[in-house]
């Protein structure tokens, strides 16, 4: 099965290299995506541009692919479920939850000169970055690509309720499956509260398991694909 891999803020497709190399021997074809504005040098990219890139990858896949979103890109994976509910085998959400219709995509940090640069490690101290050593932090920060304002401030649009039929796997890194279930049941994650098939999977990592636990994450993704 094709497994489309979408990194979150400031990341391009290379962040999935370790996961991709571990997935191939498990019988699946990893397809890391470099999104418009996050690796192609375009600071004018919009959320619609990123959505179009994800949908193009879905449409190009043979059979039904599995779409994997990390962090804020969980929303991109969920938009794919909304736009292509009959084409997806499954949506996997790593370390995040999908925004609801009408919400901003990722209006999280200061925008300067038309982009949202990586804010440094201060906002991520604690469970998010606990398993990143100094070398990993420096490497991630050096590779961080400022996110265009047109992406970060884009408005999420969801229109097809068939998205709730797409099976979901929520991978829980810096939080536990029990916490995720509590948030969903409390109505804090309205999109997943309405999803008909949601599995919660634990991984003992911080917010970037593709960096710190690539082989384990690959096994989780392969198991999800096999179950589909």
How are the elements arranged and paired?
Elements: E1 2-6, H1 17-23, E2 29-33, H2 47-60, E3 66-70, H3 74-83, E4 90-94, E5 115-116, H4 134-143, E6 147-148, H5 149-152, E7 168-172, H6 177-185, H7 190-194, E8 198-202, H8 209-212, H9 214-227
Helix pairs in contact: 1-9, 2-3
Characterise this structure:
Residues 3-219 form the AB hydrolase-1 domain. This is Esterase. With 228 residues, this protein is of the alpha/beta class. The chain has helices at residues 17-23, 47-60, 74-83, 134-143, 149-152, 177-185, 190-194, 209-212, 214-227, and strands spanning 2-6, 29-33, 66-70, 90-94, 115-116, 147-148, 168-172, 198-202. The strands form two sheets. The protein has a six-stranded parallel sheet with strand order 2-1-3-4-7-8, sandwiched between helices. A two-stranded antiparallel ribbon has the order 5-6. Helix 1 (17-23) crosses helix 9 (214-227) and helix 2 crosses helix 3 (74-83). The radius of gyration is 16 Å and the shape is globular. 47% of the residues are buried.
Task: Describe, in short, the structure shown.
This protein is of the alpha/beta class. It has one domain: Alpha/Beta hydrolase fold, catalytic domain (Rossmann fold, 3-Layer(aba) Sandwich). 34% of the residues lie in helices and 15% in strands.
Tell me the number of helical segments per DSSP (H or I, 4 or more residues long). 9
Task: Please state the CA-atom Rg, rounded to the nearest Å.
Answer: 16 Å
Count of distinct strands: 8
Find the structural class using helix and strand composition.
alpha/beta
**For this structure, what is the CATH homologous superfamily?**
Alpha/Beta hydrolase fold, catalytic domain
Biggest pleated sheet:
6 strands, parallel
Strand order of the largest sheet: 2-1-3-4-7-8
Low-confidence stretches: none
Number of domains: 1
Task: Measure the end-to-end span.
Answer: 9 Å
What is the name of the CATH class? Alpha Beta
Strand content: 5-15%
- The share of residues in helices is 25-40%
CATH architecture: 3-Layer(aba) Sandwich
Organism: Streptomyces lomondensis
Pfam family, one: Abhydrolase_6
Protein name: Esterase
Domain AB hydrolase-1: 3-219
């Amino acid at each position: 099965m094709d497994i489309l891999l979408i990194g979150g803020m400031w990341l391009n497709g290379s962040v999935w290299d370790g996961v991709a190399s571990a997935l191939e021997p498990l019988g699946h074809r990893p397809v890391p995506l470099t999104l418009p504005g996050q690796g192609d040098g375009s600071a004018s990219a919009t959320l619609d541009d990123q959505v179009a890139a994800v949908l193009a990858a879905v449409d190009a896949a043979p059979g039904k692919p599995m779409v994997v979103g990390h962090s804020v890109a969980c929303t991109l994976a969920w938009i794919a479920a909304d736009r292509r509910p009959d084409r997806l085998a499954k949506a996997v959400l790593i370390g995040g939850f999908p925004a609801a219709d009408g919400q901003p995509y990722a209006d999280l940090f200061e925008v300067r000169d038309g982009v949202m640069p990586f804010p440094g490690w201060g906002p991520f101290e604690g469970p998010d970055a606990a398993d990143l050593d100094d070398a990993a932090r420096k490497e991630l920060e050096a590779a961080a690509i400022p996110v265009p304002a047109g992406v970060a401030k884009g408005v999420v649009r969801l229109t097809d309720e068939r998205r709730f039929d797409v099976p979901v796997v929520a991978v829980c890194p810096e939080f536990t499956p029990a916490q995720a279930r509590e948030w969903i049941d409390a109505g804090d994650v309205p999109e997943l509260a309405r999803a008909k098939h949601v599995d919660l999977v634990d991984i003992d990592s911080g917010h970037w398991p593709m960096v710190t636990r690539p082989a384990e994450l690959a096994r989780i993704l392969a198991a999800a694909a096999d179950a589909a």
